[in-house]
Amino acid sequence: MNKESGFAIPVILVAVLIILVAALYFLIWSKNKTESPSPKAQGQGQRLNFKSAKDLILSGDIKGPEKIIEVSLNFDKSSPSSLRISQARVLNGYVPQGGLNRGYSLQVLDEFNELLDQQLFEIPDTFHSDPKPGEVLTSVNWVSLDKVNFTINLAYGSSSKKLRIVDQTGKIIQGISLENIKIIENEPDYYSLPREKSFSELFMKKTYASGRERIVDLAFVGYKFGSREEFTRLVESYFNTLLTFEPFKSKRVKIRPHIVYISPAENMDLGCKNGQAEFNISRLYYCDNEKVAKLVNGRAVPFDFIAMMINESEYGGAGYVDQPFSYTTKGAGPAVFIHELGHSMGLLDEYVVSSENPPRYTDERDNSFFKNCFTGKSPFGTNAIWNGQSSYFEGCGDHNNWVRSSETSIMKDTSAEFFNDVSIRILQGKISQITGEFPNPAPNQYDPRCGYTINLETGIQTPVPCFQLGGN
Predict the structure, then answer these.
(1) For the domain that residue 76 is a member of, what is the CATH number?
(2) Which of 84, 208, 382, 470 has the most Cβ atoms closer than 10 angstroms to its Cβ?
(3) To 5 degrees, how large is the angle CA 299–CA 305–CA 306?
(4) What does the CA dihedral 198, 202, 207, 211 come to, rounded to 10 degrees?
(5) Quick one: which of 441, 450, 443, 442 has its CA closest to 468?
């Protein structure tokens, strides 16, 4: 045997070994994908592999928390200073993504009044409950509060020196110093799913740049459940059901559930109550948004939306449009959870309660698009959202003279097992905003945290300019 053939044999053996190792990794990767819940399995109660957050952060499946400022705000309609910062603290956590592109601005500044971070927001003072499947409501099902407390998260760094609230006109409402702000060293305390890994990631550990992962984080909070196992099974059922609805079915790898369990021994008061005594709405179940947010932040849970599950057998819940919170009783089931999540992601109800009752939404623009409702009678054309809709149905968003795009959908009747096409496009847009699939704005021209507007005729997303900064 000559030297060349003697040298070739080890090379061939190494090549074969590499191929075998690659094949083994590919089989493991394929098995992991196969074990991910398929639509068919979801309907059969697929068990999900929830693990502790600390283990998932250690394995690189979840990016660890960073320093944030949790800002508590107080709204009191009767006060001359109706909107004020009541408290702020620094802790380990996450800043939600996909915020609004309108409303008030909560800003964090450096010592030179340069903007470091901001969140646009609307006051969460209006919420409602929904009818049972097939039921037509004849009485008011919504509440507007004169006083409300809530929280907003902002990024924090060593340069963060001030907070301030700016209204829609650019007027500064309030400013406070961050000097001597309380810093809490909290640790992650929740359960989540391992991230689906690409084939290449099997050979290397996932690393993250600064900032949030571009994924939709959905935090399930369990209240009054006897055991974590009981609550986990409920979350599995609800999340698997969600993944049978478009666009969540197609976007399932972009959506990650987290479990926040409250044990009975903690005896925690989250201000949860039924609305019968105060508002004469028996199916209204809700909690204190500020207390729920502080619980989630205190456990360093990433969230874009918080779904509170209340262990009550009665049918009930509460929803907020364009707000991260929703509430569902165990007795209401997964369809109500999905309906309320639709509200959190920007959808209106597609029913009308009663012509004798005032509507929740008072946008009076003629022949224009207001979320998934059209405020006119002829929603035709080739715009991005309605996509040449050739038919429509009267009654949407509590207005008899607004129209919806389908006879029924889960936003009209929770017995429907689908979102209509218009709602799907809106939900897809929200998911894309959170996951970063929208085009990035030009450098130094816009701040992407200020959000986007959508041209309904062309479908082009345009970044919204931030408020001009100035003054103290």
Answers:
(1) 2.60.40
(2) 84
(3) 55
(4) 30
(5) 450
Name the domain count of the chain: 1
Distance, CA of 324 to CA of 304 (rounded, Å): 6
Cis ω for the linkage preceding 379 (within 30 of 0): no
Residue 134 lies in a domain: yes
- Contact in structure between 43 and 235 (CB atoms under 8 Å): no
Q: What are phi and psi of 147, to 5 degrees?
A: -135, 140
What single string gives the DSSP state of each residue in 147-174?
A: EEEEEEEEE--TT--EEEEE-TTS-EEE
Domain that holds residue 158: 66-183
Please identify which residue in the block is written with the tokens 């037509």: 136
Burial class for 57, CB neighbours closer than 10 Å (0-12, 13-18, 19+): middle
Does pLDDT of 451 surpass 80?
no
Residue 318 CA: distances (Å) to CA of 126, 297, 408: 10, 21, 21
- Other Cβ atoms within 10 Å of 90 Cβ, number: 18
Handedness of CA 275, 276, 279, 280 (dihedral sign): positive
Burial (CB < 10 A; 0-12, 13-18, 19+), residue 358, is: exposed
Q: Note whether residue 302 is domain-resident.
A: no
170 within some domain: yes
Query: 424-438 pLDDT, tens per residue?
Result: 989 998 999 898 875
CA atoms of 308 and 311, how far apart (whole Å): 10
Q: Is 278 helix (H, G, I), strand (E, B) or coil?
A: helix
Residues 332-378 pLDDT 10s: 999 999 999 999 999 999 988 865 555 666 655 555 667 888 876 65
Residue 163 lies in a domain: yes
Beta strands in 311-463, from DSSP E residues, in sequence order: 317-319, 325-329, 369-370, 373-374, 393-396, 399-404, 452-454, 461-463
pLDDT, tens only, 193-212: 997 765 555 555 554 444 56
DSSP 358: P
- β-strands 172-177, 104-109 pairing: unpaired
